[in-house]
Amino acid sequence: MTTAEKIAKVQAKLDGDPDATDAVVTDLLDDAEEAIFARMYPFGVPDDVESVPRRYERIQCKLAQRYFLRRGGEGETIHNENGIDRHYGSVNDEDLLMEVMQVVRL
Fold first, then answer.
1. d(CA 33, CA 37)
2. What residues have CB less than 8 Å from 101, skipping those under 6 apart?
3. Facing residues of 71 across strands?
4. Is residue 79 within 8 Å of 73, Cβ to Cβ?
5. Any residues with CB less than 8 A from the CB of 13 and at least 6 apart, and which?
6. Where are the domains of the chain?
7. Which residues face 20 on adjacent strands?
8. What is the pLDDT of residue 96?
9. Is residue 27 within 8 Å of 20, Cβ to Cβ?
10. Using CA atoms, how far apart are residues 43 and 14, in angstroms rounded to an integer?
11. What mean pLDDT is predicted for residues 95-102?
């Protein structure tokens, strides 16, 4: 999937939110890529790795979507406003990142 396709996919899931510009979504995709790489390569990302493997692109898009929706409330565990309770069950996104297999090279 190209970067443009990933951006379009995330923007579609955000239902055309005007704040989800290409630049914002690209930055969030980069953050998601870093999270995936941190999980995949616990001892450092090899120099020859340039992008998220195809099998993890779906996770990258989901993470970017979550990051966008959490703006202003990053790391929030419980929030109550006007009778609406909001909390994030997995602030570190472990539910998605546990699907990423660790890779160690010798």
1. 6
2. 40
3. none
4. yes
5. 61, 65
6. 3-97
7. none
8. 87
9. no
10. 34
11. 86
Can you tell me whether residue 80 is helix, strand or coil? Answer: strand
Q: Which residue has the tokens 């790391």?
A: 75
Q: To which residue do tokens 């996770």 refer? A: 59
Prediction pTM value: 0.81
Residues 6+ apart with CB under 8 A from 76: 70, 86, 87, 88, 91
Q: What is the pLDDT of residues 34-87, one digit of tens each?
A: 999 999 999 989 999 999 999 999 999 999 999 998 886 666 667 777 887 777
pLDDT of 69 reads 86
Average pLDDT over residues 18-44: 94
**Chain-centroid distance, C-alpha 19:** 17
Tokens found for residue 94: 């472990």
The first and second tokens of residue 83, run together, are 């009778």
Alpha-carbon gap, residue 96 to 102, rounded angstroms: 14
Q: CA 67, CA 34: separation in Å to the nearest integer?
A: 13
